[in-house]
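Let's practice the habit of predicting before peeking. Look at the sequence and jot down your guess about where helices and strands might fall. Then scroll down.
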Amino acid sequence: MNWQHIALAEATPLPWKNGGGTTRELLAWPPGVADWHWRISVAQVDADGPFSVFEGVQRWFAVLDGAGVALALGQEGALHTQRLTQQSEAFGFDGALPVDCSLLDGSTQDFNLMVRSAHGRAHMQRVRGTLAVIAQEGAVCALWAGASGAVLRDANGVCPVPAQTLAWTSAAPARGLHIDSADALFMEIVPCR
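Done guessing? Here is the structure:
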């Protein structure tokens, strides 16, 4: 199997400008450029505060650890509040929206996927048990394995993914993929053609 692995412990935590937390960038594509097409990271949120605004970016967000957050999205008069915990499904939203984050009960660790709309689209979902996937041709597939780790299976074999590790491939298995995990996140990123 052609899966690359990136452990969370290998990523350097970078402090936010507002002092409310840190981000560990696991993967950005293309690598080494500021104007990435898509980006995967894990954030440690230690204080209430606003998210950065990303015009033209589709964002996906999931709580990994801690009690969770309440996100207030939009402006006065058109405000939507989304409460997210470790049990919630991954939440997708427009990165151009103003977002204010309130911690429910202390710090949280959160998973983030961002895709510039001009370069593609994405989907992220939780895996609790077994998930069978047939990825679109040309898609990038990624899996975040939580505390229990995960196992990827396709026609070419079996690939264990250690806990707190991102596995990804740009060669999605044509015959499908099976994922076994108690606490994982699966992502499919489909580039524009």
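How did you do? The mean pLDDT is 92.
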